[in-house]
Predict the 3D structure of the following.
Amino acid sequence: MNSVIIYTDGGCEGNPGPGGWGAVVRCGDSVHEISGGELATTNNRMELLAAISALAALTERSEVCLLTDSQYVKNGITQWISGWKRKGWITSTKEPVKNVDLWKRLDALVAQHRVTWKWVKGHAGNTDNERCDGLAGREIAKLKQQHSKTARQDALATFKNPTVTEARTLQQASWF
């Protein structure tokens, strides 16, 4: 079984806002960097997507040490998820679990590997964590460059309230 070390980080400008994630995947002497982003998202979604994407990039069952600066991700996957699943994806406060789509994806990927989760303090000089932060920031900058302010605002409105786009589409259709 491969031994893999993964560092992950995610963030967004505004919360919600344009977001990015990054991961550094180390296997022996091999180092891979991956990153991505979304035009309208939250910090927590980007933190989750970083871990999901890094684990999904592994081509065979591995022993993984995954380091994240997100207590949300670490505690969610190591402490809270079993209760959420047992209660039908409901929290201890009887609310639906936020980001359930991503938690389910992460849970399925974790089941394919032997993963140890570790928390690392962000912005504390850890080279690989800082690299992940830089990758996430680069993705945010790229999204902001590729999309106008209006497009970003529209994406944010849709993210916050998906029915806004549907209403605008219907409104525009009625003008013709």
Observations:
- The CA atoms of residues 121 and 156 lie 29 Å apart.
